[in-house]
Each structure stands twice: as structure tokens, then as C-alpha cells.
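Exercise 3.2. Students should predict the tertiary structure of the chain below and write it as C-alpha cells, then compare their answer with the key that follows.

Predict this chain's 3D structure.
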Amino acid sequence: MSESKIKEFTLKTPKGTKDWADKDMVIREGIFSYLSTLFKKHGGVTIDTPVFELREILSGKYGEDSKLIYNLEDQGGELTSLRYDLTVPFARFVAMNGISSIKRYHIAKVYRRDQPAMTKGRMREFYQCDFDVAGAYDTMVPDAEMLEILCSGLQGLGINDFKVKLNHRKILDGIFEVCGVKEEDVRKVSSAVDKLDKSPWEIVRKEMVDEKNQPEEVADRIGEYVKLSGSINEVLEKLQKDEVLLANESASQGIRDMAILSDYVEAFGISKLLSFDLSLARGLDYYTGLIYEAVTAQSAPPTTVDSKKKKSLKEDDDASDYVGVGSIVAGGRYDNLVGMFSASKKSIPCVGVSFGVERIFSLVRQRLVQDQQVRASHTNVFIMAFGNGFLTERMAVAKRLWDAGIETEYLYKNKSNPRRQFEAAEKLGCSIAVILGKDEVAQGKVRVKTLNTGVNDDGELVDLDNVAPYVKEKLEGIVRVDDISRLIGNLTN
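Answer key:
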């Protein structure tokens, strides 16, 4: 390759993607670990599906967002696309394997051809953590458990200032019907209503009239309903007095469902975290019943930002410090999706919840004091040698500790002065030093010293044969401020 060609090469990640550095990965793995444990507590089994699906599997499932699907080139006579979410592949999996009931969780990357991406805080490649229940059960029982998982998940990650907005697609469809929306216009009007979390009613109304071709009086009637919000019981009380709405079969069924749900969320002790909000629409076509999403105060853009620096950002720059994160968890009921893939058209009721890891990560990371408490390395023990290199002896001690499951390192140098070795241990954040000296090696012993205590001592003299159990016991007595699991847990205090 010529020198001129090399100079023209742009070293960057594709738009809407980013590299995740070592400390970031520690936080993300902590989030994955916590959510996996939570899903298992609720009986979840995990599956995996291909990162791309046949294009016909994904088409027609996402409403207006279908334009965001990444289509791949024809390879070997098959048209395929990158998965847009984990829900449609799950429904395909259930139908393809003839499953009648399953609780599954799935943590994996999904892809959306959003434009622009980074400067709006949106990614083209990101992780989702999904938990879904497929199967026929009593009305609203699994739905209530989804809401409990949602609330427990956020609280367990130290995110307490959130609110879960709820609505029911049958109620929303009933509202559109009684307000005069034609059946073929319901989904496009619904997508306009879904923007009420970002835009005032006046702008949404204008979109309904000018772009969705709805009469002004229809838009105004819809406005009277979608402005309603409050506790489940407060909104139910108003809806149950609306004779016109109750006469609509779809809305009436949704109102009955919400009345049942009210008792269940009270039993789980989460009712105060929920808001029945008739403006919530969730634009995806496959939802059929209860829908929900969680937002926080930080879901909105921050008010104190460096405006000069924000203006200097290019379209594909990472703007996560300057934009709101939007909803951080979302989900709902989708009873007809599996039937779309089944030859018998047999419908398997499903309900699920999806945690947006990148958005949750940005909130957790802020609470970890800008990485000051997070170590990239898991190394707990550093092996040192004074007065002599003792390289092979250090290797032998490291092998003993590794075999005992202890994260251990040493300098890859035959000889090094003590200062450099202590600096290396400090950089890694090690808690314990195992020290080899001439006298100790001759006696078949080592010194075990606890680091960062402020005490200047030589450490404890320990037999080489006993070094692994001794160090393990010593580590168990040390409270590690960099343990990501403890950090996440401490955020709830």
C-alpha cells in the first residue's frame, strides 16, 4: 500500500457505534451479571439466536420503525437483515420449536439504522437485556411480574428516581375508535401520540392534522384523553365513568385488565412507582395489551452542559454527556406475534420487558464518581522479589495462587527494584503483596503484606505450602471498594 493511501485512511468506529474501554466494561459486566441473576430468580432460562434473521421474519413487525432495519446483501440466495430487537427472534424461536410455555432471558446486541445517531444519544449497535414469558396464564398475572422485575431491576442497580408509565393498547385503540379515527389510520395516529413524551401536545396535534390527515375535531377529542395521567386507580375512576368509552369493546376489555392489574401491583408493593399515562403508545406494531416504559429525571437532556463543546460535536461524535437517555426500560404484551410465524396460526400469549443497557450504563457510571471507584483489572495480589530476581520462584508462587482461583500478577522482568514493583501493584489496585526475599526463599517461606493500610510493616511470614489458603483468607477479610457488585449494591443505600 502506498504512503499516500495510508494517509487517507480514517481510523474511527462506524457511525452509531463506539469502543468500550476497560473500566466501562467492568461496569457493563456488573450490570449484565446483576440482571442475569434477577432473571434466574424469576425462573428464566437463557437462549441465543442469530444476529441476523431472514428479512421476511422482521418485515412488517415494527410499524414506522421498519425503515431502521439493517438489510444485508443477498448471500447465497437468502435475503437477511440484522435483528432490530430480541422480541421478534424470540417469537420466531417459540413458533419454530413448537413451544407452548417458556420463561426466557436473552442478553445480546441489536442493530438499528438510525440517522443521525450519536449526537442524539442514539446508538446503531447496542445491547438489550430481555425477559419474556410465553404461555397462557390468568389475566395480568405475568404482566404484573414483569413490572416487578422492571422495578426490582432498576432499584437493584441503584436507580431509584424512576417512574414507570403504563398504558393499554386496547384502551388506546378504543379511544381512537370513539374519537373517529379510521381503522387503517390507527397505527399512524398511535405513532404520533407516542411522541408526547418528547413534544408538547400542540406539535403532536399539528402532526396528526397535517401529516396524518386527521380532522381537527378528531385530534381535539384524542387530546382530551391522552392528557390523562395519574395512579392506576385515579385514571381508572375517570375511565369507568366514561359511558362512551365503556361501550367500546376494546376499551372496555383494557379497562377491566387494568382494574385486575391494580390489585396485583399492590400485592407486589410497587403501585407507587407506576403512573397510568394515556399518552404512552409504544410505536411497535406487535403490542396488543399492557405497555410500559421507565423514565428518570436524567431521561431528559441535562440542563448544565458546556454548550460550546456541544455545538462543536460532529454528527457521529459520542454526545452521551450532552443528551437525555430517554426511556431506560420498556416492554409490553404481544399476544399475536408467535401466531404470525406458526403454520397453524396458533397464538401463544407473550409479555416481556427489555432493559436498555447503554442507557442504564450512563446512569450507573455517573454514580460511580467518574470511574474513581472502578478498577479495570481484577488483580488482587502482586508477587514481588527483593534483592534478587527470583523470576522462576515468582512464577511458581503465581501458579499456586492461580490454581487457588486468586487473581495474581508479577512484573515480566528478571530483576526490578522494589519501588517499580510497588508502583505496578498500586496501579493495578492490588490489596496484597506476596514478597520473596533471599532469606525467605532459603526457608521456603514468603512474606504476605496488606497494601494501602498506611502501616509500614514487612508483612507476615508464611510457609510457601500455605501461601494460597492464607492469601485467600486474607482477601476475604478485605472490603474491596472496587468490587463492581458491591458498588452497584451500595448505590441503593
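Discussion points: Residues 116-120 have pLDDT under 50 and may be disordered. Residues 22-41 form the longest helix (20 residues).
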